Amino acid sequence: MLLFYDYVLCVFILSGLWSFVSKRKHLLSTLLSLEFIVLSLLFYIFFVLLFYSDLYFLMYFLTFGVCEGALGLGILVSMIRSHGNDYFSSFSLLQC
């Protein structure tokens, strides 16, 4: 049964990676795919650490995942305020 969960979670992680690589037009879609990858990794770590009965690492990982999401949303809001949209084509690092 654990092998089934490994395959399913690997498919989730790979589909999140594929979505992250293929959807490069909007910042919001890339942030959502990154959050999907983090959530898939959280479930994978949960199933692995469930057998070791050491679930404290999950709280650290969840904290870093939440901080990553908040940082991404902050970047998205500042980008929309400064440029008016979340297209990568309108955003250049050379412009101030």
Would you kindly provide a brief summary of this structure?
The chain is mostly helical and 96 residues long.
What does this structure look like?
With 96 residues, the protein is mainly alpha-helical. It has a single domain (2-83), classed as Helix Hairpins (Orthogonal Bundle). The protein is 75% helix and 0% strand. It contains three helices and no strands. The longest helix has 28 residues, at 56-83. The model has no long low-confidence stretch (mean pLDDT 80).
Strand content: under 5%
Helix content: over 70%
Shape: elongated
**CATH level-3 fold name:** Helix Hairpins
Q: Into how many domains do the coordinates divide? A: 1
Main β sheet profile: none
Q: Structural class, please?
A: mainly alpha
Name a few traits of the molecule.
elongated, NAD, 96 residues, 0% strand, Helix Hairpins, mainly alpha
Layout of strands and helices, then pairs:
Layout: H1 2-22, H2 27-49, H3 56-83
Helix pairs in contact: 1-2, 2-3
